[in-house]
Amino acid sequence: MTPLHFFPTSMQSEKDAQWQATNLAVKKLVYLNQDKLSKAMAISDAICRQLKSIFPLLDELVRVACPWCPEQCCIVNKVWIDFQDLLFWHLIDQPIPVGQLNCGDKAACRYLNHRGCILPRLIRPWACTLYVCATQNKCLAKIGPLVEKQLNTAIQLIKDQRIDMETEFIKAISKTNVT
Ligand code: SF4
Ligand code: SF4
Predict the structure, then answer these.
(1) 133 lines ligand 1 (CB under 6 A)
(2) pLDDT in tens, 75-109
(3) 102 CA to middle of ligand 2, Å?
(4) Whose alpha carbon is nearest atom 2 of ligand 1?
(5) Which atom of ligand 2 is nearest to the CA of 111?
(6) Overall pTM surpassing 0.70 (yes/no)
């Protein structure tokens, strides 16, 4: 049986150490600039609300489409936690995943187990949340065009909000560096 993680433990540890260092740097920036981050925090709260509004539908799509999937995306696709994800989790004060998703090009996601993704939805990467595959799209179409439209609208809104959140964060950090 092919192991899920084929990299030597030392290489994985090194990647995890880099991840922890990046995570700590963002945590420190958020902590040191709390008084300047009200706009970024308000946007992150709005993202949180939008995400929670689409989670029940996304869970339903997983329920009807994923158990019988012959080519699970969490094994074959390669996605990563990005800076906006990390910033968002720090701004809404969520526990941060212990490391990046994949350990190498041929590794399945470290957060995948036999029952699916073990990460709570709120701390899954945005790349995972917004991915609606062809099978799920067919299921979505059966649910109805209105729901489909609502999901697409929410996804676009969250995309825009994530950019705004990052922009406000960078503005706040820049002010700190100037003064
Ligand atoms: S989201 Fe689509 S590709 Fe991924 S496991 Fe579910 S059915 Fe398969
Ligand atoms: S974090 Fe979860 S949803 Fe994303 S690739 Fe890994 S197992 Fe799949």
Answers:
(1) yes
(2) 888 889 999 999 999 999 999 999 888 756 567 89
(3) 9
(4) 133
(5) 7
(6) yes
